[in-house]
Amino acid sequence: MSLKVVVACETFVDVKGIIESAGDIEVELLDPFEETEPYIEAMKDADGALVATWPLTGRDVLEACSKLKVVSRMGVGVDSIDLDAATELGVLACNVPGVNTVEVADHAMAMMLSILRRIPETVAATREGKWSDDPALMREYQETVDRVGGKTVGILGFGNIGRAFAQRVSGFGPKRIISFDPYGYQSSADLYGVQLVDLDELWAESDIITIHAPHTEATNHIINAESLAKMKSTAILINCARGKLVDQVALHAALRDGQIAFAGIDVTEVEPVASEDPILTLPNCFVTPHLAGYSPTFLEECGQKQAENVSFALTGRAPHGLANPDVIKTIAVQRSGDGGRWAGIPDFSTGLPF
Hints:
The protein is an alpha/beta fold. It has helices spanning 15-20, 36-43, 59-64, 83-89, 101-116, 119-127, 130-133, 135-144, 160-170, 186-189, 199-205, 225-229, 248-256, 296-314, 327-336, and strands at residues 3-7, 25-29, 48-51, 70-73, 92-94, 152-156, 176-180, 195-196, 208-211, 236-239, 262-265, 285-287. It has two domains: 3-99 and 296-351, NAD(P)-binding Rossmann-like Domain (Rossmann fold, 3-Layer(aba) Sandwich); 101-287, NAD(P)-binding Rossmann-like Domain (Rossmann fold), CATH 3.40.50. It contains 15 helices and twelve strands. The strands form two sheets. A seven-stranded parallel beta sheet has the order 8-7-6-9-10-11-12, sandwiched between helices. Strands 2-1-3-4-5 form a five-stranded parallel beta sheet. The two termini are 29 Å apart.
């Protein structure tokens, strides 16, 4: 039985070769889509798809593509896929967990250190000749650059990336490393020298807060006017996770009014951020263009695993990452009847660790 896979996103490896080498699978490479209607049209007869963050792979898309069995998204996040609809319809929503843990943790560290050591502005001032021409400014820099040592570092979310950040920052001698994660266990946090605390303690005690949580209904705008008001006026906020975890209007106001000292963000509520967005005018906010997760290694490994998710699922092997494990029950029900969209496809579920 010949199967069809659509590649509806940018890739950096030979995904066509990877997928077609797995069996009788035809791969169609397409330019990334901007609109939902042509996106649906391209996938309506596909068995699998490699997708990006946009267009959204929502219920309308999944319901219109009756043959679709697996969608594999680049990176760790799956917030662009309607997981409830995918589970209900029997479609695997796959990701590539852990593929850029190193990159994101490194970027968050770089953000933190750049802010504390005032690297961007001192480099710019030196290029402008102010080292020799503006001794008062140099004195200000000398008196305000700071260190991690002795500070309390808070981590919002203690998954793979949160733990990787804890490993890195521990070598800089913080006074405490604390974290909030409703799914975490203190016995695991102990391995990293981290104390799990409630949200109010995280806000109130942290000198530096770094966000490493997924975007869900529960975490949407978890950083808001109320939580910002509970932070120290000297606090630094780092966000290399998802833009919608932070109420950007509230963050702008807090930074403008000195409610917190500084922010370093790699993600914004709407991306790309508009050139006229007021967040970009603040001298106490560094913004990078959602590149925390990227590196040549990531692009290669992510593309390969994204392609393997589809080829594995369609040939009876467990994918690297499955964001909706309850779909296995739906597929089992389908297989107990006429098989539905999974008719004739080998069972992949025996290879999963749950």
